[in-house]
């Protein structure tokens, strides 16, 4: 086990994933299934429109000065792109544009891969969650919520049936 392995942080992230998945299955998924498909997708995209928070990893004092600037930039810009794609998805869905669903696919694939990459790089290269400073809540709480909501988007996108219904 690496010296920087931090059991409390790992348990915190695991707890956030478990709680996010349980709450999503009990409360969120039943509500989304009852909504028209475009409305359900727009609601989930709205949650991701706040991904610009990741830009704070590049703000002096928000994270430790020892945090890799390359990691901070990768996380920050990746999140900004995800937020922009989420906003584009919301606009396309609201206006019922013919390319709305492909825009949602682009947002969801990008957003999911961006988060998984950030976790991978964080675990393999950063390893010390203390370097995240005030931003520690992002991987410990916000990212599990985001990843669970990405799964919900995939579930809605992969369901067959009329475009207007999520279920």
From TrEMBL:
<feature type="transmembrane region" description="Helical">
    <location>
        <begin position="134"/>
        <end position="158"/>
    </location>
</feature>
<keyword id="KW-1133">Transmembrane helix</keyword>
<keyword id="KW-0812">Transmembrane</keyword>
<keyword id="KW-0472">Membrane</keyword>
<feature type="transmembrane region" description="Helical">
    <location>
        <begin position="100"/>
        <end position="122"/>
    </location>
</feature>
<feature type="transmembrane region" description="Helical">
    <location>
        <begin position="75"/>
        <end position="93"/>
    </location>
</feature>
<protein>
    <submittedName>
        <fullName>Uncharacterized protein</fullName>
    </submittedName>
</protein>
<feature type="transmembrane region" description="Helical">
    <location>
        <begin position="6"/>
        <end position="29"/>
    </location>
</feature>
<feature type="transmembrane region" description="Helical">
    <location>
        <begin position="41"/>
        <end position="63"/>
    </location>
</feature>
């Amino acid at each position: 086990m690496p010296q920087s392995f931090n059991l409390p942080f790992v348990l915190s992230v695991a707890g956030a994933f478990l709680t996010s998945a349980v709450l999503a299955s009990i409360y969120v998924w039943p509500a989304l299934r009852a909504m028209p498909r475009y409305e359900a997708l727009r609601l989930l995209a709205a949650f991701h429109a706040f991904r610009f928070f990741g830009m704070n990893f590049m703000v002096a004092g928000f994270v430790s000065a020892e945090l890799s600037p390359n990691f901070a930039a990768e996380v920050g810009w990746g999140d900004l792109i995800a937020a922009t794609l989420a906003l584009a998805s919301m606009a396309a869905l609201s206006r019922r544009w013919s390319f709305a669903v492909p825009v949602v696919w682009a947002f969801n694939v990008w957003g999911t891969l961006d988060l998984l990459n950030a976790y991978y790089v964080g675990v393999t290269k950063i390893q010390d969650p203390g370097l995240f400073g005030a931003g520690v809540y992002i991987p410990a709480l916000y990212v599990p919520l985001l990843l669970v909501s990405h799964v919900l988007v995939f579930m809605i996108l992969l369901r067959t049936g009329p475009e207007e219904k999520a279920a």
